[in-house]
Amino acid sequence: MGASIELDKTITTNVESNLGKIVIRAVVLAKQKGTADDKAQEISADGEDDEAYPDLGKGPLDSYLEDPRAGRGYAVFIINGQRHHQWDNTFIVRDLGLKYLRNRTMIIVDLDTLSSEAIAEIIQGSRQGLYEGAVYHAIRDRVVATLKKDPDLDRLEDAAEQEISDLRTGDEAVKKTLNQLIEDHHAFASHVNEGAVQPGDSHSKMVEAWEKDRNQDVVVSGDKSVGDPATGPVLVLGTATASLRLQPGKLKAIRVTAEPVTAWKCLKGLHVDVPDAFEGLNWAIEKDAIGATIKLMYEEPSDFDKDEYPIEAGMRIIGRFDGYDESRLIERRVIASIPGPPPPPLPPQALVNPPTHIRVSSRQPVRLLVGGADTHVRLKWDGMDSLVLGTPPLWQFVGHCLTIPAYPAVAFSRPAGGRFEMLIPAPVGLPVGQKLVFEVKAVGPNSMALVATFDAEVAEAPEPRKIRAKAPDSTGQRRPPYEIKIIGQQEWDTGCWGDEAWTEADAACFKEPTPKNPLTLIINEDQSLWRAYRESMIRKKLVEATIKERTTRYISHLGFHLYQMYQRLRQVREHNKSGGNLEEPKDEAMREEINRVAATLIRLMEVSR
User: Fold this and answer.
1) Which of 44, 172, 303, 340 has the maximal Cβ count within 10 Å?
2) Rounded CA separation 304/337 (Å)
3) Against a cut of 0.70, is the pTM above it?
4) Cα-atom radius of gyration of the chain, to the nearest Å?
5) Per-residue pLDDT tens for 539-591?
6) Pairwise CA distance, residues 195 & 442, whole Å
């Protein structure tokens, strides 16, 4: 393929009892710096339309795709080696939740082992794709159930998301100029208040403003033991852990989405609150088309006593959706500590023929979510990977439920380095709380067999539940706390910082609020660097959507930075009213700061596209 492979995983699984099996292969390529998949991954963190970026260049999967520009062919279905159907990378993003892997992941589904009746239904004489009937939808459901919670894919997605977070803070040159891209939009400075809307939002749009705590009904994701039944979407965190662990100076990114994911477009407001935040803890929210990334950073105070570790605080993530009265809530503990020494690396496992043991690596009891995606149980053996290949293979894996002999069939991934997985479905109808025992067996020649058993417990899939909790209240308001204004050279006499005239070097300024007008954030579209960059985009014949995206990004970043500059000024004044003696930022210093910000934003767009 030309690029190194991060994951190559094959799973054979039953579709339904009478439809036969399919073989699913998931391949993830390593990201290549400077190529299309590198640039598209960075762009995809903010945008939702890949077709807005036709000038990205060649990607590592292009030669395998029917139409790389349209994203077609990232999931293909083959029969007798012939491609009969394909899905675009929307499937990888929407159905599998692999946003940051979408440009370097390919799914190949081999249908050769379906039953003859199933193949007869889905193959059309026209060869214009598979017939989308009952068999087709059963195959689709099985592919989603198999891959949606795959631990290896989730691990690579988390790593890619963390890398995106680091990249968007700025490269080394940008850090020196702007201290990590305005400290990640000033998010890692002290929190005063968050802007109620993103800069550039329509000023007539109803937005959410977050007020003081009050006891109220909120909706969480939980089982039937939690609260009362509720309806509508819920907020879902990308990690299932009850606490989020931070190390000093290291950025941690976590993903927040809606369930169902299609409800995200109805989100009115998202707020992160840490009422008992410890000193040095800072956070930011970056929203996109299908979710949000929350970035957490802990900077250890200079006079901190390390004997006080670990320190912790409670974090609340609150969201509001159109059409629903109650806020949606997630609660987690945030813990900062110093990591202990890493354990010594384990020696590589010696793989032999014949193998001598098979073991279960997953924590027990394994939780099986009723009606959810397949549960992946980690296993390992000391047999050579090649022993389960071939037709027929020398060794094969079989598994079944000892508690319920008629339990649906399980599936296995192909081993890699002696490690593999057993995939267990949890069909609707299983009693919640039932304890099950499963057996996995490696069967070889001459009746050789290796056996392991493990415990499982049937659990309820989370659903919307209404509880009573203390959370920040939200109110709709028509006018946001600031207004964006774009001016050109013909308006340079209206007054910049300190009412001095604008010049071509001035990128932006703010005007403080008055009883009649909100805080006004003014962007100079004829600033020399920005005007030159816009002209260069036109000379390169970039499509309109690309130019619009970059313009929106530039204005939004500048506007947000101006907003934070004003908040900082206000905080100093409030402090001085209480007897403090801090020096207020001077107009000339703020002028130089925002011009540096503008220059760095333009440089970022030049080097990252």
Assistant:
1) 44
2) 12
3) no
4) 28
5) 887 777 778 778 887 888 888 788 888 888 888 888 888 888 888 989 999 99
6) 58
